[in-house]
Design a protein that fits this description.
single chain, mainly alpha, 73% helix
Amino acid sequence: MTKNEIIERCRWARDHNESHPSRQWPMGEQLAVALVLRDRSWLDSTNHTTETATDMVCERAGLSAFEFTGWLNDIRAALETEQR
């Protein structure tokens, strides 16, 4: 699960699914997109907290908690740049 893969998933969610992840994607990707797009209602619907989702994404992406913050911010910055 790379930054570019999650950026593409976020674009799709934003453009085609009211900014929600697709339930057809692997769970790690769903959680990553929900975290990037700040989709708390989606996390709630899957019985995940921000903390449990972060833990799972870190595990799947091979990131430490410290690295995750930068990873998340990089993805958000890339998406924000596109919308300007």
